[in-house]
Batch of 2 targets.
Target 1
Amino acid sequence: MCNGSLRQVFNLLTDKDIGQSEQDLLQHPQVNEARRWFLSAGTGAVVALAATGLPFSARAAISLPIHERKIKLVNRQTGETLETIYFQDGAYLEEPMTQINRLMRDHHSGAVTKIDPNLLDLLVKVEALLDRKGEITVTSAYRTARTNRRLRSEGAAKQSMHVKGQAVDIRMPGIHLKALRDLATALRAGGVGYYPRSNFVHLDTGNIRYW
């Protein structure tokens, strides 16, 4: 599929009222063709997607469920697992968000903060574009300022987005780390860090930057 075809598909996505016709849209033959091509092309598809020149909202339109958003998280440090619907009918749900905040707490101190809902949405978008519904392994999420200072010797940023509840370090079982990095980079939704030696990708909802 050429970039022109990709542009046609994503124009189709953004020209329609996704909130009212999501199911019809996702069954459209051109959209299904794009999804099949993306999955078969792997990392090359990510490059082509970025090369379309479409704004982030258009590139990601297919990937964010409108009516219900579900996520499955596994905290590698504590062994806790949570599978929950955190967004439904246009609103983030208080109890599931509280559970997510706890799972993504600073495991060094036990401190909890409110995790940025946009960060969860980013994870759901990545999974949807990968046509994947599975667990997301969280290696690090919220950190207190004190914990972050302790981790500076291990490479933690001085002004870390983890301290704000806007960052998470993850891996997705069955997905190559580099492919995960490349897809997140193409979405241009925030910061993306690649740590192959430690086996995780950092994602945050701050300014667009890569390392």
Note: The radius of gyration is 17 Å.
Target 2
Amino acid sequence: MPRLTLGLLLLIVSGLSGMVFYQPMSGVSLEGTLSCTVVDPAAAARQRVTLCLPLEQRQKRVWPLVRRLARQHKLDPALVMAVIQVESRFFPLAHSHRGAMGLMQINPVTARHLGLANPLDPASNLEAGIGYLAKLRDLFGGNMELALAAYNAGPSRVKAAGKVPDIQETRCFVKSVRGHWNLFRSRFMSVAKF
């Protein structure tokens, strides 16, 4: 049996058939999703359901937690939603080619620095990522463009440049987040209960 057929069969049998139609954004893959050890079967079942949901439903699932955590850190929840959209498209098990993980794509070095034990746990990932974004906002005097650039390229690169670094990926990241920020502001903030 060819490898592709066997791979598709495994996806269908494992209940992850919805992933076949997912086109990850460049630099993001879902390689680790099939190699996870199942410790809590109920959590694994919830994760499979999340992976198969359409984008809009995945967004709605994280919105209450994002809104609460963003407000705790005095961040615009729509901004956080935009970061998640650009980083992982709301796939909690997303992995980048550079090793960043989870909804907010936190890399292993930053995860250790933030004390994040399980970057693939959506609640922990959001809490650490939102807290980190708030720290970057404070570090750059409230300048969200520089904070977003630092979230993508690292604070030392932004400090050295004194502006958004001349890195194409970082410039695209900042531009994309800003575009999605307005979209999420109009879409979710109208239904937010403050």
Note: Strands lie at 28-29, 95-96.
